[in-house]
Fold this protein.
Amino acid sequence: MAVLSTIQCVFSVVLVLFASPLPCLNVRAYQRPVMVQQTGKVLPKPQMMTVSAEAYTLAMSSFKFTYGSSSEMCDIVDQAFRRYYDLIFDVDGPKKAPKVPESMAELTVLQVMVKEPCKGAYPSLESSENYTLTVTAPMGMLVADSAWGVLRGLETFSQLIYRTDDGTMIINKTTVDDFPRFAHRGILLDTSRHFIPLKYIKQNLDAMAYNKFNVFHWHIVDDQSFPYQSVVFPDLSAKGAFNPYTHLYTQEDVKDVIEYSRLRGIRVVPEFDTPGHTASWGAGLPGFLTPCYDGSTPNGKYYAANPMLNTTYDYMTKLLQEVKDVFPDKHVHLGGDEVNFNCWKSNPDITKFMEKMGFGTDYSKLEQYYIKNILDISTSIGRDYIVWQEVLDNGVQDKSTVGEVWFENPTIQAVLERLTAKGYRVLLAAGWYLNHDVYNPGTDWADFYKLDPQVFNGTQAQKDLVIGGEACMWGEYVDGTNLIARLWPRASAVAERLWSNKDVKNMADATVRMDEQRCRMVRRGLNAEPLHPGFCQFEYD
Amino acid sequence: MRPYLVLLVALSLQAAVAEWSYQTSWYEKARQDKVARGTVWPQPRSIDTTSVRYYLDPRNFRLEADSSSAAVSDPECKAVVDHALSRYGELLFWIPEEDRAGVDGDETLDKLVLTITRGCTRYPSLESDESYSILVNSDGATLLAQTAWGALRGLETFSQLIYGENGKHVINGTSISDSPRFPHRGIMIDTARHYLPLPFILRHLDAMAYNKMNVLHWHIVDDQAFPFQSTTFPDLSGKGAYTRKHVYTPDDVSQVLEFARLRGIRVIPEFDTPGHMMSWGQGHPEILTRCYPTSFQPDIYYLGPANPARETTYTFMRKLFEEIRELFADEYFHVGGDEVRFQCWNSNEEVQEFMVQQGFPNSTVGFADLQGYYINRILEILHQVPERTRGIVWQEIFDNFEISGDLTGLNLDTIIHVWEWNDTRYQGEPFREEMAKVTAAGYRTILSSCYYLNYISYGRDWPQYYECDPHDFQGTEAQKQLVIGGEACLWAEWVDSTNFIPRMWPRASAVAERLWSPQDVADSEAASPRMEEQRCRMVRRGIPAQPQGPSYCEYEWNILSQLPNYRPVITSSGPRVTEGLFHNLFLGVLVLAVVKCLA
């Protein structure tokens, strides 16, 4: 409770400081409207970029993307050409081509060079996303090792273009040499607490591409519902979805999401969280959950996977085998968080099993036993895995495990230090729980932005074990009605932290990029929420 | 995995999740417990429901106006009623045709007959009678109201009584006698901190009607921008709006007014003065007070409140109010009066001289006198414009008269809007004392202090609004009678069209029930299943109201193209619109425009 009241106290102070209902005598409370300038700033800020004062114009009728003569070609790049052409020219463009000063040179071609074969490619943790972009009239050049690098470069290119008041499209002479700081830059969506219609999952994937995120962590099932339509266990969704006909991701839907993501260079990492957070599995998979007892009689309630039964592991083997077939990513997230031992403790069969296994009364050993079996299953079917931090704190020994840090224990930095000291690779999510919306989102993105996953006590080798991070949008209070507005542009702050150089931390500069990026997303049709009073040239309507 | 910071809010729903355990058909059960069916929001004054079910056949069911009553014979009634009947004709039934089951062999309800016993006014007002009664039994269904405004409330209730079951639309035998607890049930929107495109305002008005709210308080201009396009002073928006596109033309305003009128909603504009006028200064710096630098005034404040020393200021305001009065229909205008920076008046020699001339001392009392003088001149102007108008003011005006020691100085027909919750907000609730003081002095009052929806905290926060009662202050019965209602406020520093509707709804529904239903309907836990139904009902009708905890709606927001979010169209013969929000709104506005032209 002491911690609680401290948090509440801090929270109150923040409210008092920033939450004055009307601009009042206090000068700080007057929120000056911001005139957002579209000047072609790029978010996340590239590693190296030189912009010259020399400017070129672009015209819808003459501009084209082409492949370089020795470039690899594939659908990923083909479709990206089409998307970015639309994003650059179609949105609210002037009906008539504005007059362009004759002195201004025109950029007519962006030539793209892909070095590695990209047909049918699927992104991975090891994928190169490097690119170099040279904008000079009449022909610009975009060179990348992979199609993924091309996607990142095209996004940058599209952001460099801006319009003058009369609608002339301008791009400055620019060179960019860019690559991400972290390989894993993710967004977690939770489709169990609320069902999120495909439309919004795709809108979010678009937004991710605009911000160079590359992992969609799909927390697809949880206690509240099981919307994933399993082939081997169709009853899981038939009996565990909110509604088995409408609140459901069919195999087709999942394929659709994976392909949509792939074309944007985004990996889809599904999470099947066990042994806790599985209430919705019970109806469709009888015998999977542990019966809870009052004294010596079952009380009709069930909780968590039953760790003592071989059938439990058979079920998980079959399910994970299916997951492997459906989701092409090399990683699967296996959860492992927040296991409550009360039900296991109440069950006399579990008690006997504990004795037999020599666990005494240490139920964390039982949890470890379960997790170890699940991780072994995953390894045996050929999938690497990510787990929540408790699993690593509890001492699972496999060093190939990726741990996702989600709570302060006692601080974020202490967890990072501890887990990397043990040699695990880690992802940071703590501090980036964007589902917690606040009165003034202009204040909280700054906190997201300032959090650096590599700032903790440790050797360089330890720092190198941080492979990235994830912004999380837990779904208790979020569904299609408010998902996009709550997540964006706040997640853009995380995007820049994970992509840009660690020295990019000037808040004033970041604010300008955030403002432009927010209005850019609105212009592209996403209802990204405002960060302060003011307006965008093109409002969401 | 749940967010760890959830501890922070310690919500019951959340707490339940931590120990979530599985039971047979758990989601069916969870839904039954959490979501009611066929319940009414806000809760009627008196409602009796029987277990007898009547089935409605969407192909045959009719909404009828009793031709022998004012509903047909009074043209003012008829206009509103006809429009409402076609709207509700669309709202009553939502189960997609392909999912519907026949009702042959069931006891059916074939029609609702609407009778208006008194007559109608063109616009709703503070005095409008919104009472109605509904009877659904084996003889049929009847709706009885004194006025069209009551009929609108009754139609909304009737539409909410219908629920879906196995592909059938069902209503139980019901007897309702209903009327609002408070006559002023408002929502304040702020179109100055961010511009709200018209379709979002119209959609919001629909949502207000679904919750029986009856006042749109339109805080249309403020320091940041002046989007109202004045024909008398075009430079106000010409230079004070964000851009030429970020404006409300007189035609836009008329559209809002008509859309609101047809839903029984008053539109009260606020032109806040003498403070909060920085944007006016872009086009007309001469009406504002020039501030001279002092240590506490950064230079962005070089223009402060209206200049009370110049007669031209009052001439300007008179012309503006004359124009606005012609455009807006309501008898009340909100003229603000909040948060005036006396430091600026203090720094200006012209104002100082004026104060000496008027005999106002150079002290807090003197500045209170000066603001009192200014606001009285403004209220006097309101009284003198062709259609006599009365003022609503923020509480500071009252406070300043109190400081001046002259509470009789303010006209008693002024309504005091209590909003402050400042400074001691976490130790006490001074707004309750303010309510007591204001009513003790004989003024009517509106409460907003505890209905600031712009403040958000993580999770399910509507109970805090729900549990704040406007009568919860020390005072006599006569004082309580002076409380005419309340307003939910959504200040827009961090709100625009991207998040306006989901942030407003269903949180504003909590305020709606507080202001409509009897005082003893106050248990938020008991109200929760009805609230869930109301939120899903709004989502189904095309209002993206945000969720209040893990759950689902039968018809989610844009779940599938085959399951559209229905949008009530203006005529029953009009197209059933099945596309997204914006398309629908566009069509809605278009149809409205056409209907207007034809009329």
Chain A touches chain B through 101 residues (CB under 8 Å). Chain A has a mean pLDDT of 91. Residues 196 and 305 of chain A are 26 Å apart (CA to CA). The first strand of chain A starts at residue 34 and ends at 35.
